[in-house]
Structures are given as C-alpha cells and as structure tokens.
Design brief:
By secondary structure, the protein is α/β, with parallel strands linked by helices. It has one domain: Rossmann fold (3-Layer(aba) Sandwich), CATH 3.40.50. The protein contains six helices and seven strands, in the order E-H-E-E-E-H-E-E-H-E-H-H-H. It has a seven-stranded mixed sheet with strand order 2-3-4-1-5-7-6, with helices on both faces. Helix 1 packs across helix 5. The C terminus is likely disordered.
C-alpha cells in the first residue's frame, strides 16, 4: 500500500495556480489508475485505486499548503504506514519549468508544505517528487508568482509535465524509488534542456515561487 499526496491550496481562488501543481498531478494519477470517486477524508480529497497489484491511496490536503502535515498524518496513522511508503508531490521554483526531481528523502529546502509534513511525520525519510515551475521574473513577488495562474502559452508544457509526473508517481509505487528515479530524473533533464533552448529563443517560460499561508518558499534538495 502506498500513499501519494499532492500539495496545494483548496478553493476556486487557487485552481490552476503554480503552487497547485501537486493537486494537478494527483488528479492525473487518480485518472490513470481509474481510482474511486474522491471523497472528503483526512481533511482533504481522498481516493483509492490500484496499479500493478499495489493499492494506491491518493490525498490532496485541504488544510492549505503550510498546514499539509496534519492531513498527511491522519492518513498515515489510520493506515499504519511507513514513511518510505508516502510520496509527496509539490512545486519547486528552483527547477526549470517542466523538470521533475524524484528523491527518496531530504530536507524541506524551504518548502513550507514539506516542512510541515516533516514536523508531523517526525523526520525527512519520505520520498518527494518536485515539479519545476521556474523562477519569478523581475518585478514579481514570490507570493504573487506562485499564486498566479499559468499563462495559456505554457499550458501544453504544464500538461505534459503533470502527466509525466503522474506516471512517475505510479512507477514509484509499483517499481520502486530506484527505477523511477533513474527513468524520470533523466527524462526531466532532457526536458529541461529543451526548455532552456526555448528560453534563448525568446519564448515564454513558467515560474513559480512562494507565499504566506497559501504559499511557501522552495529550494531544491
């Protein structure tokens, strides 16, 4: 049994914002495994499904980003899980847009959602999948940037990245952290190089950052 947690902020106000990429990936993961209809549980949206003989639990906390840990802890305790069986999916402003970084453990790196989960799970020993959203351009505050919506010009890139991240989450659950890291971190590097070429050609690039109670600061592990 594995628990996949997508981080974000609840409510229409925050739908499709950069900080909610974790929610987007969780929704795609649920669709790919034909999970049960979501229901309110553990202070969040919760669904169940399976893939490759592995039962998958999907949770999107409704406690706002900076209090994500209390929702995660409730599911963690109810199912009597181990930290290595919990995958947290969140945005990362220090990764190029569309790039993925899967790690078996690590610090919060300034991401307040991860920081709260570390506090509630009493340690850093849980896997995390970071989805790059880039840096805010000059003149933008981090809060405004992460809580801003993706521009239409970036929708195709974000759609592709979120889908790839969903497959990465499923492969983490069914194949293990090592094989998933080898496959998706390498793919992410390739995608990052393509994005850098686009940037040089003057095409738009996404960025995301951090805020207050509805946002958080992030650094890569």
């Amino acid at each position: 049994m594995k628990l996949i947690v997508g981080l974000g902020n609840p409510g229409r106000k925050y739908e499709d914002t950069r900080h909610n990429i974790g929610f987007m990936v969780a929704a795609k993961t649920a669709a790919l495994i034909s999970a049960s209809p979501s229901k309110e549980r553990f202070e969040g949206d919760f669904a169940e499904g399976s893939s490759g003989g592995e039962k998958l639990l999907i949770l999107c906390p409704h406690t706002f980003m900076n209090a994500s840990g209390q929702s995660v802890r409730k599911a963690f305790d109810f199912y009597k899980m181990q930290t290595e069986d919990v995958l947290i999916i969140c945005d990362d402003l220090n990764l190029d847009t569309g790039r993925l970084r899967l790690r078996a453990r690590g610090s919060a790196g300034g991401q307040n959602g991860l920081k709260d989960i570390i506090r509630h799970l009493d340690g850093e020993g849980f896997p995390r999948l970071r989805v790059g959203i880039g840096r805010p351009p000059d003149g933008w505050t981090v809060t405004d940037y992460v809580l801003g919506k993706f521009p239409k010009s970036d929708h195709e890139l974000i759609e592709s990245s979120a889908t790839r991240a969903a497959y990465a989450a499923i492969d983490w659950a069914t194949k293990g952290i090592g094989p998933a890291m080898n496959q998706y971190n390498a793919l992410a590097e390739s995608g990052s190089n393509k994005q850098q070429k686009k940037k040089k050609n003057g095409k738009s690039q996404i960025a995301a950052a951090d805020p207050t109670d509805a946002a958080s600061t992030e650094r890569s592990d």
